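Notebook, student rotation project (T.W.).
Task set for the rotation: take a protein with a known small-molecule partner, predict the structure of the complex, and write up what can be learned from the model alone. Partner molecule chosen: zinc ion. Sequence and SMILES entered below by T.W., checked by me.
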Amino acid sequence: MATFLQPDKIVKVQIGSHEMTINQKIIPDNLVAKKDIASYVKKGDKMKPCAKLNNGSGKPKGITVHNTGDIKVSSGTNAAEQYTRATYNGNMSGVVVHFYVWHREIWQNLDESERGWHAADGSTRRTDHRGNKTGGNLDTIAIECIGPDSESEDTVAKLVAYLCKKHGLDPKYDVYTHNYWMYGKDDIASGARKNCPIYILPHWNQFLETVNKYFASVANMGKTLYKVQCGAFTVKSNAENLKAKLIKEGFSDAYIVYANKLYKVQVGAFSEKSNAENLQNDLKKKGYNTFISQAAQ
Ligand SMILES: [Zn+2]
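Predicted structure of the complex:
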């Protein structure tokens, strides 16, 4: 049986009333290919560009959306983890992206400040939607939406909205299709012009409207959130047991956050501290030993 990857860090993001979970497994700088993977990644080469976006500044100039085929996965995992694992194992022909999304699952493989290999070549820039010169690989964050499922597409829209807010991008100008970066007669003649994102392209404007809707609801970004923590464990199953107990007792939004090698069981996420204190009192009455944790969005 395949050994599934474990995220190094789990990040929770609030988009309006939706909570989004990002599993981070950032490819280490020193990871090298165990075999020849692509024309530009031979055995012993680094598995990613190891370079910052936007002329070394690390500030993304846009987001590129891709589609890739859905896959059959082993039980106990999902396609976003499986694509991440294939990347780590050198089975993606040299493609390295920032995010894989499948249904509500998100796996992050690259830091948002670094370059990937996902759109055209590594050196060309073209006129972008703002009239500046931008390169897909050189300057943008890549998201692969796995398969045609509408839930996956909806999660991608939320992720795009979140990233736009986080990096000061505007969904009206800064979101690109993969094939925007493939252009010119050489690309077409060689058959390289990709019909990507194949499932979203036919209704791209509708997708952007959904992004805009979520973008408007990411208003809390940068503010502090107050969460009530009920326990922290090194063993995941202990955290899952506590989470199940909380849900059974009516605290239906209990969840697990993995950080600093601890599985933390938390309830609620409030921008007003008094709301967290009220919840804390309810939990105390039921015998839970709690404290309020503060986290930036
Ligand atoms: Zn693509």
